[in-house]
Amino acid sequence: MVQVTFKNGPVTLIGNEVKVGDQAPNFTVLDNGLAPVTLKDSEGKIRLFSVVPSLDTGVCDAQTRKFNEAAAELGDNVVIYTVSVDLPFAQKRWCGAAGIDAVQTVSDHRDLSFGEAYGVYIQELRLLTRAVFVVDATGKVTYVEYVPEATDHPNYEAAIAAVKALA
Questions:
Q1: Catalytic residues per the record (predicted)?
Q2: For residue 82, which of 21, 50, 66, 160 sits 20 to 30 Å off, Cα-Cα?
Q3: CA 105, 157, 20, 75 torsion: positive or negative?
Q4: d(Cα 142, Cα 139) in Å, to the nearest integer?
Q5: Is 63 left (phi over 0), alpha (psi -120 to 50) or beta?
Q6: Which helix H or strand E contains 143, and what residues bound it?
Q7: Is 95 a catalytic residue?
């Protein structure tokens, strides 16, 4: 299992580690209007899942803005999701204030379905650890990064390159 820290302290991740080559696990999260979102909803598209502990923190804010900016160069066949346990209402408010319009924020607060399916649920904090997953149009995982220290930035360039390699 993946080992990560949060503010340099070890944490327990619940769920299954996802690896390159795996079929992407299904999940159910909520969009900003409380409608369910599943993996199947974006079937046939390239997906980038940017997983963050909370949009209301500096690194999570920067990560979401970075992928929002990258969306323009990645094309219409790419869907970018930011997944957190923030409430859908808070995500909607944050996106409006931050001018986020190319990334879809989805909330895993209700069931931690994404968190457990992708092995990113931090048991001690009821937050998701920072990670990035790229899934191709057929549902195969082609890129995985579990950020070793949850308060650090992911490798943006590698994740974006992984998406471009599929486009």
A1: 60
A2: 21
A3: positive
A4: 9
A5: alpha
A6: strand 141-146
A7: no
